[in-house]
Design goal:
Layout: H1 21-46, H2 48-64, H3 85-91, H4 100-113, E1 118-122, H5 130-141, E2 144-149, E3 156-158, E4 166-170
Parallel strand pairs: 1-4
Antiparallel strand pairs: 2-3
InterPro entries: P-loop_NTPase (IPR027417)
Keywords: Transport
Family: Belongs to the ABC transporter superfamily.
Length: about 190
């Protein structure tokens, strides 16, 4: 976050705003605020607070699946949440200091944050561990914590992509596609 700009900061260029005088400045400010809010949303949904929770959830599930502990509750809501400062600490790290899996997550965050009309995910899970993949898939499908109910498919959570976006997933493995059923159009080459 060098240079004092911060997460989601930076100038809003003239092409992004319409109107005159004060209207343009108000529009610029709304765009800046949306960018910052969206950056923090994506950081929270895909950063360590999310993928560490998935790691803990599945480690705990494996631990509880041992017959000795099968009488204990398996409610994922009982798993402790990571504090918000974990996301802040992650946001302040230079990209080059991150391990490969976290670098891949940051690249995914960057692809999603501006809500472009087309998102291209080429071997997106490469280098990520299971917790990272599960957090990213949940976010893309609208199953990550927070947000409202997705009216189209009734999912609860923050959506990484919305109905105005198309996502192209390039992969060698069909099971890597985050969506199923009618949400997907498959094209096989060769």
């Amino acid at each position: 976050m060098g240079g004092g700009v911060g997460v989601g900061g930076g100038e809003v260029n003239g092409e992004e705003v319409s109107g005159n005088g004060g209207d343009r400045e108000a529009m610029r400010e709304r765009i800046r605020e949306w960018r910052v809010e969206r950056c923090w949303e994506v950081l929270h949904a895909l950063g360590p607070a999310a993928y560490c929770s998935f790691r803990l959830l599945f480690s705990l599930h494996s631990f509880l699946s041992l017959s000795l502990f099968s009488h204990l509750p398996r409610n994922p809501n009982t798993i402790p949440k990571f504090p918000p400062n974990k996301t802040l600490t992650f946001a302040q790290k230079p990209f080059t200091s991150l391990p490969p899996g976290e670098q891949r997550l940051v690249l995914l965050m960057r692809a999603l944050v501006g809500r472009p009309p087309v998102v291209l995910l080429d071997e997106v899970w490469s280098g990520m561990d299971d917790g990272m993949v599960r957090a990213a898939r949940a976010y893309l499908r609208g199953e990550s914590p927070g947000g409202g109910v997705d009216g189209k498919n009734g999912r609860q959570g923050i959506r990484g992509v919305d109905d105005t976006q198309a996502v192209i997933v390039i992969t060698h493995w069909e099971e890597e596609v985050p969506w199923e059923g009618e949400e997907v159009r498959r094209f096989k080459l060769g």
